[in-house]
Write a structure and sequence with these properties.
The structure is a single chain. The protein is of the alpha/beta class and 349 residues long. The chain has 3 domains: 87 residues, Ubiquitin-like (UB roll); 96 residues, Translation factors (Elongation Factor Tu (Ef-tu), domain 3), CATH 2.40.30; 125 residues, Rossmann fold. It is 18% helix and 31% strand. It contains 7 helices and 19 strands. The strands form 4 sheets. The protein has a 6-stranded antiparallel β-sheet with strand order 11-10-13-8-9-12, covered by helices on one side. It starts with a strand and ends in a 16-residue tail after the last strand. FE2/S2 (inorganic) cluster (FES) binds next to loops.
Length: 349
């Protein structure tokens, strides 16, 4: 099999990419932790620079790269396959390097409908097994036909062997239809975790944080906030949570309580289509507009965003225009539409 050498000049690390393998897949396989989130070319987390060598994109076009970025040597490393040896410039993420990614079974122990289209499920790992992860990371549910479905972990690492997921129903069936209609308590799922490089940065000096979530994009932010609270981390934190109306903010009361009980936490609900009963419950408009209304100057903040790509893109562009530091914007972008069918792997009697 043909192999290519890739050298990252940011760290001096070199690794080998097999023919037909993406740069990101090869890097992760060899313990080189490049940043990533969606792994399907839409979020832009894995952007790097090509200093020499050529790549191609055989599966998906590099959606998250603009023409200008390509012209300036940008590459989307989750999709890019080398055509020759490469020299790249890419950030590496130390914090997740030593956390082992594992496959494991987990049993569904609770299924709760939070709104008409959001289900909370809690799953339990086998006896004596713990999942080590950083708050904000995600897991994948493995499907027998080889497909996978990614979900952010909504519980904090302190919750030990119980993992919480928030699953939004996607029209058209597929995996989420199966979760809503067929998945039962006591069913067994097979997981791979932890994945992704979305987590709270603790570099000094620590900066106040703005967290912005859209819909079930709240899940990893919930994990992060619970983890910060468990560590008595009192950095100022303002959570903005956006949805069409208040009933879609499925843990609104919990977040109000966090803000009430902790002076360093503020909360703003942003409602794009509020109902009359929602009056006075928050900002009316898009969630990134709510952030800008309160923080017209963003250069002092670390910004964490989680939600659909359109929300992330709008937020990122607007925040950069308002002084946000590019390297201090962290995001987890997920596409609700990427849905695959699944079957029950095992159902105990
Ligand atoms: Fe590569 Fe999302 S675009 S990880």
């Amino acid at each position: 099999m043909k192999q290519f050498q890739v050298k990252n000049i940011t760290s001096g690390v070199s690794f080998t990419v097999n023919e037909g393998e993406s740069v990101l897949t090869a890097a992760l396989r060899q313990g080189v932790m490049l940043p990533y989130s969606c792994k399907n070319g839409t979020c832009g987390s894995c952007k790097g620079k090509l200093k020499s060598g050529e790549v191609h994109y055989p599966f998906h076009p590099p959606i998250a790269l603009s023409r200008e970025e390509i012209a300036e040597g940008g590459a989307l490393l989750c999709q890019a396959e080398p055509m020759e040896d490469l020299v790249i410039r890419a950030r590496e993420i130390e914090a997740v390097r030593d956390i082992q990614v594992r496959k494991m079974p987990a049993r569904v122990i609770e299924k709760t409908l939070m709104t008409a289209d959001v289900m909370r499920i809690r799953i339990k790992l086998p006896e004596a097994q713990r999942l080590q992860f950083l708050a904000g990371q995600y897991l994948e549910i493995l499907v027998p036909d080889g497909k996978r479905r990614a979900f952010s972990i909504a519980s904090a690492p302190q919750s030990e062997d119980i993992i919480e997921l928030h699953i939004r129903h996607v029209d058209g069936g597929g995996f989420t239809g199966w979760v809503f209609d067929e998945l039962k308590e006591r069913d067994i799922l097979r997981l791979e975790a932890p994945l992704g490089t979305f987590f709270v940065r603790n570099d000094e000096p620590q900066r106040p944080m703005i967290m912005m979530g859209g819909g079930t994009g709240f899940a990893p932010l919930k994990s992060m906030i619970e983890d910060l609270l468990a560590h008595n981390d009192n950095r100022p934190l303002h959570l903005f949570w956006g949805a069409k109306n208040l009933s879609e903010l499925y843990m609104h009361e919990t977040v109000l309580q966090w803000a009430e009980q902790n002076d360093h936490i503020q909360y703003t609900a942003a409602l794009s289509e509020p109902r009359s009963a929602d009056e006075d419950s928050g900002f009316t408009g898009l969630v990134h507009e709510a952030v800008l209304q309160q923080y017209p100057e963003l250069s002092d903040f670390d910004i964490y965003m989680s939600g659909p790509p359109a929300m992330i893109d709008a937020g990122r562009a607007a925040f950069l225009e308002n002084g946000a530091v590019k390297q201090r914007i962290f995001f987890d972008s997920f596409e609700f539409g990427l849905d695959v069918p699944i079957r029950v792997l095992a159902r105990p009697h």
